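Can't attach files on this board, so I'm pasting raw text. These are the components:
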Amino acid sequence: MPDKDFEQQLRDGLHDWQMAPPPPVRDAVLEAVRRRRRRRGLLWIPLGVVLLGAALGGYYAFRRHPAERPAAIRQVGLPASTVATPPQPAVPAAVAPAEVPVARRAGSVNPTASPAWVPAVRGATPAREAVTLRKTGADRPAAPAASEVSAIAAPGAPDLLPSNAPVALTPTPWSPAALAHQPLETGGANSGGDVKNTGGAKPAAWSFRVYAAGGASGQGSFLSFGAPAQSQHVNFMDAGATGNNAGVPVTGASGATASTGMDTLAGRRAGFGWTVGVSASRRLSSRFRAEAGLDFTQAETRIGPVNGYGPYLGYTASNQSNYNYGAPPYTTRLTYINSYRLLSLPLDVSWSVAPRTRAQPSVYLGVAPAWLFSGDALMYNPSYSGYEVAKSLYRHLQLSGELGFSATILRFKGGDVGAGPFLEYGFSNLQKFAPVSDHLNFAGVRLDLSLVGKTSRKAP
Amino acid sequence: MTDTRKLVKDCLAGDPTAQGELYDLFSGQMLGVCYRYTKSQADAEDVLQEGFINVFRHLDRFRFEGELGAWIRRIMVNTALNYLKKHRHYQQELAFEDDAMHPVVDDHPEVRLGAKELADLIRQLPTGYQAILNLHAIEGYTHVEIGRMLGIHEGTSRSQYARARALLITWIRAASDHYRAPAAPGPKGNY
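---
Top answer:
Structure tokens for the assembled complex are below.
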């Protein structure tokens, strides 16, 4: 009869038994660790790309349209004689004076450097009202020579520059020189009217939005709101539990609401999610808008009902020798609610499907980098092969894609209210560690309150 | 004596020397663990490699509340079980059937074999038996825990363990009598 029982002999014989591993395994492990460390640095690249894209998008979206820029040419240090002057058409003396329509968005030239034009311009230009150019010449539809025109607004304004002085004009948008370059409209030769600078109103460039959304949120694969039971059979950590499992101390995080040890042989079900946020959008064209915002999302998902293992803690109890478990002592069944709280920076492009209709339906598509900053979700911890409530197990940086539809349902002065369905899918795994791969799915209805910015300024 | 705290800290700082040192410190023992759970040396080395990558990946979660070796060992065991579940040639034998409780034989023969011979005998058990015997007899997991880890009922774990134990005792006796491993492999295992 042996001194020890069979299991003890096996344990003594094998527990600390060693074998010499081949060197290539060592090299492979250390290389993989080194690569992983390098890759961790590369993970910032997508964020950089997103920020760069946002910056570029912002630049192109918000830069001033050429038509809105001051048009005077900044020419410093050049003698007046070198400044371009509009080629002047040969004007037969016998031809009656005609109105010369001026091309829209004409360029600029120092009027003092073009003496032949100055009197006509000055004499016929009431300040901030209209530009009338009268020249003697044939009645022609348009004078190519008048491609660049500038005018001094105030009649009788003194000559600011001598005719041979270098030109240095940097007008502000409201300076006389710039005002002269507001879009020009011609009444046309047939109408007999003057060339007018009307500066027509444009649609609103900016729009500000406050929105709220609510719907179903779930975790799993794409569009998975009700995933079946996990194939990875792992334990739920008990809230605040401190135990010892096979020599490994295990501490559950405090603050969780799980009150018993549970299994994961339970499905994932959808919970309720909601979002509130603000955004600003800028018109890119008649149909497209770019939008950037900031929102807060709380998404809940449910696991269960799961079997609770009674009043004792799985890990704590596991080390009690000779403990007779008997039949599975399921004494409770409950559903655990995972909560995820995220701060997102949605960047969308919207396309107006029918801009002339009253509802103005539009479709938007975009990405939303987000920071998963808090939650009480159970996360897989590979070290203990169990679920645990621990922030360190979250993948904090999340990237989602969103797609939605919106239509105006109510209009009021200065804004409108829109509503429509949306779908959001998290490209990033919520949990840091394989093999559990859960992505956040969020779908519902979004309600927008849009405040439309003032229409672009009226030209003088 | 190696300062575990410093070693872990250096590893977390990305010091390759410390990482190599940690690997050298535990790799021999962990290969022994992996060897017992798999059917071939190559598979054992695969598990060892994967397991150590997991160790380094999750090293920041080691809380110094227990022995580092025990923590690494647990990761190795989990890695080995996941490896068995993942690879097809192991999957079939991991399909446990709910079984009537096998009568437990209170038999405690004296084991006179060396560790390598003993490990080789265990490897000849069918994969399911092998995993459960390793988990219960050597690692010290309870059947409830084994049930959760393998996704089987606790009773199944008990009965499978009883069968594995009986089979192993028979082989150990034969091997001890003849100072050699049994010629025939286990009832199913043939890798």
